[in-house]
Amino acid sequence: MPLTCKVLKALPDERQQQLLNDHNDSVLRTVLSLEEISADHAGEGAGTGQEYARLDAKLNLLLDLVGQMLAAQSKIPAKATLRLGAETVEWLGDGLPKPDQFVLLELYLHPSYPRPLRLLGKVLSGTGRLGESAVVMRYDGTSESVQEALEKLIFRHHRRAVAQARAKRN
Q: For the chain, how long is the longest CA-to-CA vector?
């Protein structure tokens, strides 16, 4: 996933954190809606389900095209190996921050939506699951609504990965 990391001298004040949480709420709502499955409408009859599937395919094509245009104009960073959790994020990369530093991490969650999720936190000491050269950051100042939306996004990705693994076995 593309990400950038900026070291901060201190965490922003409450007002700036609230603005950041509002931004993150918007980003997560949009990413979650982009990932909605059109199968929700499949039980409404064969004709209606097929019509929803056609509309969904057209909207996905439009979103992909607009996302590609925006990504070309935006300066999206290179992809990094990361592990996103409900309370922490761990990543590998160049110029990593040191333990106890405050950082602002920007994660680009969806290729069709080039607006980053901006997470504040403090770098922890020790190593994470990705290895010795990885950095682990614990979130700080994240609102309850952002936390819930992030957990929902992580759960959906995990559920999708499990379903794909089962499909490969069958």
A: 58
CA 12 vs. chain centroid, Å, equals 22
Residues 89 and 77 sit within 8 Å (Cβ to Cβ) = no
Task: Provide the whole-model pTM.
Answer: 0.77
Structural domains in the chain (count): 1
pLDDT of residue 54: 78
Residue whose pair of structure tokens reads 């921050």 in the numeric block = 97
Whether 97 is in a domain gets the answer: yes
Query: CB under 8 Å to 12, separation ≥6 — which residues?
Result: 20, 120, 141
Low-confidence ranges of the chain (pLDDT < 50): 38-39, 41-43
Residue 155 lies in a domain: yes
Residue 28, domain CATH: 2.40.10
